[in-house]
Specification:
mainly alpha, about 220 residues, 2 domains
Length: about 220
């Protein structure tokens, strides 16, 4: 780079044509410096005028969409149990949805329904705590900037609510393998699309956008 800059200085003193050549060289140098940065920005989603958060300022709770709030208030999984669901520990909701295909016995269905009802009740209560915690965190930035100690408390409360909710969903998935047979688990995984690329097949009962997001699909 330094040698090229020196060369342009030498060319400047040698007439109009060489002066024009010098300007061309400087333009080439600038392009070499800035083009990689611009390309990186486009790959990262920033060089195209994209505004991924535009419109989210209208949310009542900035960190939660209306869909998120609905999921939490209905006691749904919200993607929190994926480590269990995708590792051979079926969820009670989808087991009940597929009870005919899986040929579940009446005893199995009754047992799964009991743990589902208990999970749903606990999840709704924990979901409301998470919604309240996220609302408090959002409101803290709506006025004056929160003090560091207050901010830590708000973050800790929201994190604790989320951890409790996730524990409720994940721990429920630990109970289902004790109720169903191994062959039923294998068939469940096939029916749910886990035996193939999860990005190519969205299992029944899942929101397509949320499924692809949680599975890292582009």
């Amino acid at each position: 780079m330094r040698n090229l800059a020196a060369a342009t200085g030498d060319i400047h003193g040698c007439g109009k044509e060489r002066g024009m050549l010098a300007r061309l060289i400087r333009t080439a140098i600038s392009a070499a410096v800035f083009l990689p940065l611009a390309a990186w920005g486009q790959e990262d989603g920033h060089g195209k005028g994209a505004a991924p958060y535009a419109g989210l300022q209208e949310r009542q709770i900035k960190s939660l969409s209306e869909r998120d709030i609905e999921e939490l208030r209905q006691g749904r999984g919200w993607g929190l149990a994926l480590p269990a669901e995708l590792n051979g520990h079926p969820g009670p909701v989808h087991l009940l949805e597929l009870k005919d295909e899986l040929e579940l016995t009446k005893g199995q269905v009754d047992a799964i329904r009991r743990i589902f009802e208990e999970m749903k009740s606990d999840a709704i209560a924990a979901g409301e705590r998470l919604i309240s915690a996220e609302a408090a965190l959002s409101n803290a930035f709506a006025g004056k900037s929160p003090e560091a100690t207050v901010l830590r408390e708000l973050i800790a409360e929201a994190a604790q609510a989320r951890a409790e909710l996730r524990y409720i969903h994940l721990s429920t998935h630990l109970l289902t393998p004790e109720i169903i047979r191994r062959g039923q688990v294998e068939k469940y995984n096939t029916l749910r699309g886990y035996a193939s690329d999860p990005c190519l097949q969205v299992p029944r009962g899942h929101d397509p956008d949320m499924w692809r997001r949680h599975n890292g699909c582009n």
